[in-house]
Design brief:
The chain is α+β, with helices and mostly antiparallel strands. The protein has four helices and seven strands; from the N terminus they run βααβββαβαββ. Helices cover 29% and strands 35% of the residues. GO terms for molecular function: acyltransferase activity, transferring groups other than amino-acyl groups.
Length: 139
């Protein structure tokens, strides 16, 4: 598996991964409100790392470098549990300076468990009653 910076030719696959992953795991969200264009809207101004194997993109992470912040981390559902997310987190840590931060939707128990298993710590729960999330830190 190779981790590299995304380029414009990756965007169709990245849009697809973002959409299918959210529709597959965001049970609390309205799936009808999700679209392929969300990827471009949600990652504007961020650096994107992709995990690739045999010229096939398995997942990505988007980084807001000025704040050492991981904005998004998504792995195609077919590749879940194969170490893709772990490799992307390591690459993010190598790209930015610690401490790193991210936000994880409180209802996303699977993602929360994944981050905690990778050494991330919950700092504070924020947001509205309808959209709570944990701010997490990695040092």
């Amino acid at each position: 598996m190779k981790i590299r910076l995304a380029n414009e030719f990756d965007y169709p696959a990245l849009r697809g991964i973002y959409l299918v992953s959210r529709r597959n795991s965001f049970e609390w969200a309205n799936k009808e409100d999700m679209s392929l264009g969300d990827f471009d809207t949600h990652t504007g101004g961020e650096s994107i790392l992709v995990a690739e194997e045999d010229h096939h993109i398995l997942g990505f992470t988007s980084l807001y470098l000025p704040d050492n912040f991981i904005h998004l981390l998504f792995v195609h559902p077919d590749c879940s549990g194969k170490g893709v997310g772990t490799r992307l987190l390591r690459a993010a840590a190598e790209t930015m300076n610690t401490p790193l931060t991210l936000k994880c939707v409180s209802e996303n128990h699977q993602a929360m468990k994944f981050y905690e298993n990778q050494g991330w710590k919950k700092v504070v729960e924020e947001g509205t009653p309808q959209e709570k999330y944990w701010v997490m830190v990695y040092e």
